[in-house]
Amino acid sequence: MAYLGNPQGTIAVLQKYGFHFQKKFGQNFLIDPHVLEKIISAAGITKEDCVLEIGPGIGTMTQYLAESAGEVIAVEIDANLIPILSDTLSEYTNVTVINEDILKVDVARLAEEKNGGRPIKVVANLPYYITTPIIMGLFESHVPLDSITIMVQKEVADRMQTGPGSKDYGALSLAVQYYAKPEIVANVPPNCFIPRPNVGSAVIRLTRHTNPPVEVEDEHFLFSVIRASFNQRRKTLVNGLSNGGIASKEAVSQALADMELPACIRGEALTLSQFATLSNLLKPGSKN
């Protein structure tokens, strides 16, 4: 089987199967071998690793993963791609293809079955509309994860990596940085894909923290506070958190005063550490 990581190989497979791209699945297939190699090397894949690939498409990156990893689990939602994957991956005995929506897959159980419960590595070229739910689903369910190396829209990668004060800073930045260390490893122009997307992409590696960088009494409550702080970006924290039902204006004002922060401050000015302190102060039944 020829490698698919080039336009000719990809087009040949698509024609052979009469495959039509489905807009609803946000399908854009990578056709640049250099980018594929960069993803594999950024993810640090070795024969010791069990890799979960989300959205293998026609198996382009899966082939590269299968050569480098011990075990690959590829989860593909589009049933039309399953026969193609059976063909393009027929030479590899270390690949399992699952036709399922990744948001409905019990990833912890897969890690247990395929990797003895040891942390897995996630690699994906993600459809843009579903990037955040997939990443947050993996982190929040506390699946044993070593790292997530993903191709996403450039703007989303920037958002994951940015700090306070930037217009891109928000709930996603804080959530990602609570769970992992984000690092953009490559920028990828639109001409590296078929069909060509309208925006630039980036490969970002999220290396899971062994322990979160801040201490919170209630992780779930922390994220409620963060979400409410950015739901109405232009509002002050006092208004945003009281409108969001997190705490009364008086309680928020008092907490900010305790933290020596001005009452008119907005969410985009607070660091993750300050959000942790604020959520510990505001948590119902808190000892503070």
Question: What's the N-to-C terminus distance?
Answer: 64 Å
The chain-level mean pLDDT equals: 91
Total discrete domains: 2
Order of helices and strands: HEHEHEHEHEHEHHEEEHHHH
The CATH superfamily of the largest domain turns out to be Vaccinia Virus protein VP39
Give the helix proportion (percent range): 25-40%
Overall strand count: 9
Low-confidence stretches: none
The CATH architecture classification of the largest domain is 3-Layer(aba) Sandwich
Task: Please characterize this protein's 3D structure.
It is a single chain. Helices cover 40% and strands 18% of the residues. A seven-stranded mixed sheet has the order 4-3-2-5-6-9-7, with helices on both faces. Helix 9 (219-231) crosses helix 10. The mean pLDDT is 91. The chain is an alpha/beta fold.
